[in-house]
Fold this sequence. Notes:
By secondary structure, this protein is of the alpha+beta class. It contains three helices and ten strands.
Amino acid sequence: MLTFEQKLQILDSYPELERKNVSLGRVNYQYEQSVYDKKTVAYRLHPNGNGYVYAGLLEGYETDDKGYVNIREFTEQELRTLLERSIRSLSVRDDREADELDGPLPSDSFKDTPGGLWRNADGAVLTLKYEDDLWYIFAGQSLEMVFETREEAGEYLAEEGFVPQKK
C-alpha cells in the first residue's frame, strides 16, 4: 500500500491536475480541462491512506454510486494507469465506449496547443518547437522527432503519453 505522501507525489506529477486541499487534511485533485461537468479526478485522499479516483466512464473497475474507485490498496503502477485512463476519459466526448480510450487522444485536441513543454506520467519532459515550417520535438538538447504538421506532432506526443505542461 502506498502512503498518503506517495499518493500525493504521484498525483502532483500530473501537471494537468490541480490540487485542492479540503477539510480534515484531505486532498482532492481536479481536471479543469474536462469536457464533462465532472472535474474531480481524485477525491478525499486522506492521511490514513484512503482515497478515491474517478472511473465512472471506464470499464473494468468496481465503482461506487458516484463512479469512484477506492485506491487504498493500489500499487504505484495501478494508480498511474487508473489516473491516466480517468484523465483521458474526461478529455474527449464521443460515442465510443470509454474503455476504447486507451489509445491516443484525437489529434483535434492538439490543434490549438502551442509548442512548449510536454510531460508524461513518469515526469519525463519533451519540448515542442516550431521552426522553418516544421515541428521539432526535443528530449533535452537531443532531437527526438520532426513533423511537418502540428497534428502529427500532437498525435506522436499523445501516443507516447505526453500532455502539455501547464504554464
